[in-house]
Amino acid sequence: MITKGLEVVSQNYIAGEWRSIQGEGQAVFNPSNTLEKIGEMYLSTAEDVLEAVAAAHAGFMIWKKKSGSEKSSYLYKMADALEQESEEVATLASKEMGKPIGEMLGEVMRGVNLLRFYAAEGVRPTGEVIPSTDADVLQYTKRVPLGVVGIITPWNFPVAIPIWKIAPALICGNSVVWKPAEHGVLTATFLMKVFEKANLPKGVLNLVIGKGSVVGQTLLEEAEIHAISFTGSTATGKNVASACAKRNIKYQTEMGGKNAAIVLNDANLEKTVPIILSGAFRSAGQKCTATSRIIVEKGIYPKFIAAVQEAMSAITVQEALNNQAYLGPVASKAQFDTVSEYTQLARKEGEIIAEGPLKTNQKGYYIQPLVVGGVSAKHRLVQEEIFGPVATVLQVDDVEEAIELCNDSLYGLSASIFTNNINKAMQFIDNVEVGMVRVNQETSGVEYQAPFGGMKWSSSHTREQGQAALDFYSQVKTCAIKHQF
Ligand code: NAD
After folding, report:
1. Beta-carbon count within 10 A of 175 CB
2. Does 196 lie in the same domain as 68?
3. In total, how many domains does the chain have?
4. What phi-psi label fits residue 321: left (phi over 0), alpha (psi between -120 and 50 degrees) or beta?
5. Within 13 Å of residue 240, how many CA atoms lie on the same side as its CB?
6. What's the gap in Å between 291 CA and the centre of ligand 1?
7. Cα separations (Å) of 394 from 272, 399, 412?
8. Are 101 and 240 found together in one domain?
9. Ligand 1 within 6 A of 484 CB?
10. What tens digit of pLDDT does each residue of 108-141 get?
């Protein structure tokens, strides 16, 4: 049973069947109201993972023989099913990890669009003809699948991230074993229930719920898989990369960020401030692309601070299912504890420039958003990924210093500049060390049809989404046929 009354119970989906997970369940509570139980999480063993991988091998043998348009039609069915149940999926996900319902609905629709985008890839070219030096030889390339792909996902985009991995993996002809994050297991179970309606052949798409140290580790070290696509923290990503490198299996790791927004003297503050605050505080700052450093040119600094202080009164913290919520709680007790350490550090060693109001009486993992100044560029608040609603402000003399500070980070995921000076915008685009460069836009919100990924410690230098994802989920065969022989 996936639902027990109004509660959802985590289950595995292996070889086209639902499997109850043995052992003791753990209650899952709503981070917006920690008195409300929303379901139970059961955790799998290493044996469950191996069973799912065996099923995926059987599924791969069937799936790899399907034509591109046949695979397309399954992905279109998955998209239609998700669109039909978008409100149910968004409501559950919102209750499970605290993202405001409006944003969560947007995330689900991104998932629908991603499924349709990759469905269309089923009828697009999968290679190119390369002229041979021999007139009697036809030389061409073709993409072929990798085999069984392990997909390990975080909790912060519990719908869109799994889909932006599963959809390109499937359209390229791979079968999948998906391990979602512990704080997204109910959403994952429900999402699989939705995808079941597409009637994929047995074993093509499998779900295994469990801990990273058990299910994730077994996938990395023991299971007979051909590739891993991982999104999560840089610390875990480093382990994923070294485990895969030892086995020589293909991997991609999309990891943390410490994204900067630069505000130059000529920026239009009326437009800039709401965009920066949205980048910093939507989803309670729990986006890998969230704005967490704001670098401001000194000529506009006083006016910028005044505008931020005024705007922060509208950045209210409320229950995730309240339509008025600008941000909800952070996702879990663990998140609450980690982010609270940083807010305490900010209050002790920094200067609080502005704070958004808390507007709820519920008991939940609420953290008031903070804009912090008075710290150096080397301070922990400026260098470490906080992954919560805290943004630090730094003042600089000119665009050169701004770019230098922007690049003074282990991470290189996303960065923005706010200016109408095309020369300075181009100087930023040319010199900034990030994968996603934005002018007069949020650091987050990159569109699904464009490549997504970072430089430095934000990524394994691969890219997701758009057509770039097809490069990861396939390998290229170069074929040469001598036809006059
Ligand atoms: P996390 O690294 O703790 O967990 C990510 C996934 O890895 C989870 O499914 C977890 O169970 C699994 N895992 C943990 N230990 C493992 C192990 N030893 N072996 C295999 N798998 C293991 O990250 P999180 O807290 O879930 O997510 C937040 C992080 O994700 C942040 O750092 C954020 O920046 C990053 N993130 C990056 C992107 C991106 O595209 N670059 C997108 C979203 C989130």
Report:
1. 30
2. yes
3. 2
4. alpha
5. 27
6. 19
7. 16, 13, 18
8. yes
9. no
10. 999 999 999 999 999 999 999 999 999 999 999 9
**163 and 232, same domain (yes or no):** yes
User: Mutate which of 187, 233, 292, 436 to test ligand 1's pocket (most atoms within 8 Å of Cβ)?
Assistant: 233
The Cα–Cα gap between 463 and 269 comes to 33
Kindly state whether residues 247 and 297 are assigned to the same domain. Answer: no
Q: N- to C-terminal Cα distance for the chain?
A: 62
- Boundaries of domain holding 345: 259-447
Residue 464 CA to residue 454 CA, distance in Å, equals 10
Residues 372 and 471 in one domain: no
What CA–CA distance (Å, rounded) separates 113 from 86?
12
Count Cβ atoms within 10 A of the Cβ of residue 138 and give its class: 0-12 exposed, 13-18 middle, 19 or more buried: middle
**Domain assignment of residue 453, yes or no:** no
Check pocket membership of 342 for ligand 1, CB cut-off 6 A. Answer: no
Q: How far out from the chain centre does Cα 61 lie?
A: 30
Distance of CA 208 to the CA centre of its chain: 19
Judgement on whether residues 405 and 285 belong to the same structural domain of the protein: yes
pLDDT for 5 beyond 80: no
Query: Does residue 454 fall inside a structural domain?
Result: no
The residue contributing the CA closest to ligand 1 atom 35 is 232
Query: pLDDT tens across 171-184, in order?
Result: 999 999 999 999 99
Q: Residue 251 forms beta bridges with which residues?
A: 228
Atom of ligand 1 nearest to the CA of 219: 20
